[in-house]
Design goal:
With 366 residues, the protein is an alpha/beta fold. The protein folds into two domains: 175 residues, Rossmann fold (3-Layer(aba) Sandwich), CATH 3.40.50.300; 179 residues, Glutathione S-transferase Yfyf (Class Pi), Chain A, domain 2 (Up-down Bundle). The protein is built from eleven helices and 14 strands. Helix 4 packs across helix 5, helix 5 packs across helix 6 and helix 6 crosses helix 10. The model has no long low-confidence stretch (mean pLDDT 92). Bound molecules: adenosine-5'-triphosphate (ATP) and magnesium ion (MG).
Length: 366
């Protein structure tokens, strides 16, 4: 799939902007703080519905304005899709001019894989980042997952509320258990399956990038005890028993077992990358993960996603840069950089370069 055009009104530092993109490589060149990442952010929000930099959409509205508008045109399966987002007091999303009522309907219109400095958080920070990663990835491939995830979180909130009010008797909260178990089991099953596929794809990629020196493994570490054979029924049964047994802990006010407590572990040569990996190994792990995601999306939906690369070139060594750039055949790519020299000259004929400077209310290209 490709993005053919972007329009912005009062988005971040842009009053008005309209750019047409190249189906292959699009390069945004400019000094710091000129608005390169802002363009990547606008593309991302049109795909995922939220920013990768902030949870407060008001931050994206230009200073002193009340509303921001982004629009992209996407070609997928040879059909044109218009995605519009209006950010104001509320967020309004339109697909082909029709208002989208829930996010499940919206996801899957444009698949993106982003690789930005923020992604190191997946390795370095707490489980929330890793759960976000896995939830976002599965949701954009299988929108059904997003519906279940939303349901689960609603039930979880209600159940936690019930615990707080009725922490003396477990019977009072049992009405939530069945729904919690049903949706939670599905989430775990989806995630297990996804991680299994991701592992298969990530392993050879990571070996290649590291000259066959490193073996990577991604482990789904669940609060629910999972068996080797991983049938949904088995997950449900184990989960049910553990949920019952956790009442003593739950009495403190929240549900302690379930997918909202799960995590991912990344190992290289059987050592945890978060704890023992060098900075470079952590970056390479994310790179392998992102390249694997591209392949996985292609396998699942039969089209390549769009790739957004924000500021990553300066963070990778030459070998890894080349590895990345050489694997982009057939993938529309958006890339930001402060110097054009850092990019592979070989691909020059496929590039469209946008120079981002102070006054970019019209298109800049070469
Ligand atoms: N809501 C907003 N209204 C107006 N300007 C904003 C808003 N949010 C951010 N900016 C401006 O956008 C600019 C930063 O843009 P961006 O993050 O895209 O820079 P960049 O070109 O990616 O820089 P770097 O190379 O440092 O990553 C800053 O000048 C900032 O003040
Ligand atoms: Mg930037």
């Amino acid at each position: 799939m490709t993005i053919t055009e972007l329009k912005l009104i009062n988005f971040r530092n842009y009053s008005k902007l309209k750019i047409e993109f190249n189906p292959k490589m699009n390069i945004f060149v400019g000094d710091n703080a000129k608005g390169k990442t802002n363009i990547i952010e606008a593309l991302y929000i049109c795909a995922i519905g939220k920013s990768f930099r902030t949870t407060n959409h008001l931050e994206m509205i230009k200073d002193d304005k009340d509303e921001a508008y982004t629009k992209i045109e996407v070609i997928r399966n040879n059909r044109k899709v218009d995605i519009e987002i209006l950010l104001g007091k509320r967020k309004e999303i339109k697909i082909n001019k029709n208002i989208v009522k829930n996010k499940g309907e919206f996801l899957g219109n444009l698949n993106v894989v982003i690789f930005a400095p923020e992604d190191l958080k997946i390795i370095k920070e707490g489980p929330v980042e890793r759960r976000n990663f896995i939830d976002n990835e599965i949701s954009q491939i299988y929108p059904r997952y997003y519906y279940i995830w939303k349901q689960y979180n609603k039930i979880l909130m209600q159940r936690n509320k019930a615990i707080k009010i009725n922490s003396k008797k477990r019977e009072n909260i049992e009405i939530w258990d069945e729904q919690l178990l049903n949706t939670g089991t599905l989430l775990i099953a989806y995630r297990k399956k996804f991680i299994k596929k991701l592992n298969l794809i990530t392993k050879p990629i990571h070996r290649r990038i590291t000259d066959e020196k490193e073996n990577i493994e991604i482990i789904y570490s669940s609060s629910v005890q999972l068996e080797e054979k991983n049938e949904t029924k088995q997950i449900y049964e184990n989960y049910k028993i553990q949920l019952k047994n956790s009442w003593k802990e739950e009495k403190r006010g929240f549900t302690v077992i379930g997918p909202h407590r799960d995590d991912l572990i990344f190992n290289i040569n059987e050592k945890n990358v978060k704890k023992y990996g060098s900075q470079g190994q952590q970056r390479t792990t994310v790179l392998s993960l992102k390249l694997a995601e591209i392949k996985l999306i292609k396998e699942e939906i039969e089209e390549y996603p769009v790739l957004l690369l924000d500021d990553v070139m300066s963070e990778l060594d030459k070998k890894r840069q080349n590895h990345l750039l050489e694997n982009l055949e057939g993938i529309q790519t958006f890339i930001t950089t402060t110097t054009i020299d850092s990019l592979n000259k070989k691909q020059e004929k496929n590039n469209k370069i946008f120079y981002i400077s102070e006054d970019i209310s019209k298109e800049y290209e070469k």
